[in-house]
Amino acid sequence: MAVTFRSSGVEVVVPATSANLGPGFDSLGLALGLHDHLVAMVTEDPGVLVHVEGEGAGLLPTDEHHLVARAMAATWSAMDVEPPGVIIRCLNAIPQGRGMGSSAAAIIAGIMLARGLVVDGDDLLPDDEVLGLATRMEGHPDNVAAALLGGFTTAWVDSDEEGAPHASAVTHAVHADVVPVVCVPQQPMATSTARGMLNDQIDRADAVFNIGRVALLTHALTEAPHLLFPATEDRLHQHARASAYPASLELVIRLRGRGLPAVISGAGPTVLALTTSPADVADVLAQVPEGWQASALAIDSAGARVHIRGV
Question: Residue 102 belongs to what domain range?
Answer without folding.
Answer: 10-171+300-308
